[in-house]
């Protein structure tokens, strides 16, 4: 798994709270649908830049999306 380990439950929870589909999050963040899907599915980690983009799109500090202890 490359990059930072993302707290997938938190990512999914934030996306659902904002009633965003994967496609809508893709549009807001500039991160591809496939990348978001793989991160949420736990198939891959994320580069710090990706975590930053997702955090900005969801309106949270990027650190909220990273598993603690990193």
TrEMBL record:
Q: Which stretches make up the HTH cro/C1-type domain?
A: 11-65
Q: Which GO terms describe its molecular function?
A: DNA binding
InterPro entries recorded: Cro/C1-type_HTH, Lambda_DNA-bd_dom_sf
Record protein name field: Helix-turn-helix domain-containing protein
């Amino acid at each position: 798994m490359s990059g930072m380990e993302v707290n997938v439950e938190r990512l999914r929870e934030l996306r659902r709270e904002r009633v965003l589909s994967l496609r809508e999050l893709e549009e807001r963040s500039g991160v591809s649908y496939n990348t978001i899907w793989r991160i949420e599915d736990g198939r891959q980690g994320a580069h710090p830049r990706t975590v930053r983009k997702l955090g900005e799109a969801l309106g949270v500090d990027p650190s909220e999306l990273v598993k603690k202890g990193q």
